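pls read this stuff:
=====
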Amino acid sequence: MSAPRTVAFVGLGQMGRPMAANLEKAGFALRSYDLNGAGNCASVAEAARGADMLITMLPDGNAVREVVAQALPALAAGAIVLDMSSSDPMGTRALGETLAAKSVGLVDAPVSGGVKKALDASLAIMAGGEAALVERVRPLLEKLGARIFLTGPLGSGHAMKALNNYVSAAGLLATVEALAIGARFGLDPGVMTDILNASTGRNNTTEVKVKQFMLSGTYASGFSVGLMAKDLATAAGLADALGARAPFARECAQRWREAASALGALADHTAMHRFVVTPSENRKE
């Protein structure tokens, strides 16, 4: 079967908006919807009607299942659901079975790179699912990302995204704790960041978050602490489901839950710096 040309896109948040715009720019016929009223359709069902593919870019797997349930009566047999959200991999497998019974395919293809890479279509995309389905959606994925990784069977993309965010969140937490310790000793945090970036402590946080969003006090990377806490819970839950020993993942998940509770789930995830360095200023935003 040919690649989809008419695409329903549900979820026009900070990531979804530029992604949808890039697909439209690439020539796909886009039928879009968001709960906030954005998009050119008035409902999920309207967006899904006549679409070859339904893309979801939503906060979690629960939201994805709700949208798919609303869209399913309008999707024709042979259509594909492409879940680009950060969903729970076990839930993704269950959803795949439900859709297969209706002759609708499912590919999980979460992304990494943030708003900046969503804007310039240079995202890293982790695609899981049947090889034939992934190949059908590849032309579309190539308009959204610079690198597409085939992770394996259905759910593997979501598993990889949760594990990636675990590694990223652990690095961020270690970085801000190091900055807090250094500040108490009298080290300049800007100088610390420069040294880390020239040394083995270099990571994504030191390179693109500390000076840009933390030391500047803007805390505006475009990804919330609540979503990061959710992804950490997914990673820790996956370890539990598989019987894997991962005590640090559980500890890290707990720290992010505490930050989300103290700062408010909608606070930017870089505000973990404020949570650690200046705990007296913790407050919900």
